[in-house]
Design goal:
With 430 residues, this protein is an alpha/beta fold. It is globular and about 50 Å long. It is built from 12 helices and 10 strands. Helix 6 packs across helix 7 and helix 8 packs parallel to helix 9. Keywords: Signal. GO terms for molecular function: chitin deacetylase activity. This is NodB homology domain-containing protein.
Length: 430
């Protein structure tokens, strides 16, 4: 099981601008579909498009298949790739990258101090999300439209080894079934390559249920502490595992602990990936749970719960109108699953709730063009999480339409609805 490394310095991000949805333009270094990944045969029972071939077919639910997959050619699970600089899979990629467009930022350590002016846009030390180099786009870190909640879960797919009757109830498909049962809610799932290796069938369920899959590296390290070759290896083996098991090649990734700088961003961009951060952290990953051991930075479940309660209360009061939010949550332990499932129904009532990619109008988050997901402006959910309206595409499928109702909802919230919502939230916490 993944042992979370403790980041000694994690900066809180207090950001007020709404530039996360910047669309790549001709001024950015061009990206192409990764040619460095092997071709794999399609896995049985895994969708190859979205909407799926039969949109009327019910989405999978309930216990996972007991099928097994044979996966080989990968590094040791859950640890950074050893000897990456001489790895025969990594050397060709190193030769493909234009290193003149990768800043010579230093490899960081626990004692690294950010230089004056933060020349390499190191998120961990200063919360920087706008690169100091002009040829890659800003990080995605918010939902630009107010009253929107970008739903994301890191560190999946969640599983246990060994499995016991006590812990198995929290493993996937627990969260995926919960999302399906609550208005077929979609989310971004940031998968760790090593975790997919341990639970490939759970990962396939995540894709088949219509969630948007992004890369969360191979082994979940602090990325700025790695050499260039090690950074490439984390991306390569994470991407390769996703492609072999799911048949997709994501364009999105999230750095573990948010630890990223312009060196890592530039490598990611040239490997076909754009960086997604967050502007709200539940800190659920610090809750001591059945797979999270106590550390000096551990928090109680009540502390994380109070964090989310504070966001909700601020929103209900009408003090949260500048932009929407991308929120960091995890499918990591019994505690993180409990927190996520407790708050989702309330979030769905108060926000337009969707994947972070959708709220940033990214309809095609994979290099495979057969996957086209609904986006904000033509997708999604009303305030209670159900689809509203719709338009018909040329192939006859209906795309649910989202109602951008920030002004309307703000008026409602400030009126009698606010009283009802506050009462409901408080009652649920008693």
């Amino acid at each position: 099981m993944i042992a979370l490394q403790t980041a000694t310095v994690l900066a809180a991000v207090f950001l007020s601008t709404a530039n996360s949805a910047a669309t790549p333009t001709a001024s950015y270094l061009p990206q192409t579909s990764p040619t460095y990944l092997p071709s794999f045969p399609a896995q049985t029972g895994v969708i190859t498009s979205w909407p799926p071939a039969d949109p009327s077919a019910p989405l999978p639910s309930g216990p996972l298949s007991t099928a097994t997959l044979t996966l080989s050619g990968y590094p040791t699970m859950n640890v950074p790739v050893a000897n990456a600089s001489v790895d025969p899979n990594i050397i060709p990629i190193m030769n493909l990258i234009d290193w003149t467009h990768v800043p010579d930022a230093p490899v960081t350590t626990n004692t690294t101090i950010v230089p004056a002016g933060d020349p390499y846009c190191w998120w961990t030390q200063g919360g920087c999300v706008t690169p100091k180099i002009s040829y890659i786009p800003p990080d995605i870190y918010i939902c630009p439209v107010p009253d929107t909640w970008g739903l994301t879960y890191d560190d999946g797919p969640m599983y246990y080894y060994p499995v016991t009757p006590e812990n198995s109830v929290w493993a996937e498909p627990n969260l995926y079934d919960f999302l399906l049962a609550h208005n077929n809610q979609k989310a971004n799932l940031f998968y760790i390559g090593s975790k997919i290796m341990g639970a490939p069938i759970a990962a396939q369920r995540g894709l088949n249920d219509g969630h948007t899959i992004c890369v969360h590296t191979w082994s979940h390290p602090l990325m700025t502490t790695l050499t260039n070759a090690e950074v490439v290896a984390e991306f390569y083996y994470g991407l390769r595992m996703i492609k072999e098991v799911l048949g997709i090649t994501p364009k999105c990734w999230r750095p573990p602990y948010g630890d990223v700088d312009d060196r890592v961003r530039a490598i990611a961009w040239q490997m076909g990936l754009r960086t997604i951060i967050w502007d709200q952290d539940t800190n659920d990953w610090q809750i001591v749970g059945d797979q999270v051991a106590p550390t000096s930075s551990s928090i109680s479940y009540a502390t994380a719960n109070n964090t989310v309660e504070g966001w909700i209360a601020n929103h209900v009061k009408g003090n949260d109108t500048q932009h929407g939010h991308i929120t960091l949550e995890h499918e990591l332990s019994n505690a993180t699953i409990t927190l996520a499932e407790f708050w989702l129904p309330t979030i769905q009532k108060l926000y337009q709730t969707m994947p972070a990619t959708a709220c940033n109008n990214i309809a095609q988050p994979y290099w495979e063009e057969s996957f086209v997901y609904p986006i904000q402006g033509d997708q999604a959910v009303s305030t209670n999480g159900t689809a509203v309206g719709g338009s018909t595409s040329s192939n006859g499928t209906t795309t649910p339409k989202i109602v951008s109702s920030a002004a309307t909802k703000s008026t409602q919230v400030m009126g009698s609805v606010m009283t009802l919502v506050v009462a409901a939230i408080m009652a649920s916490l008693l």
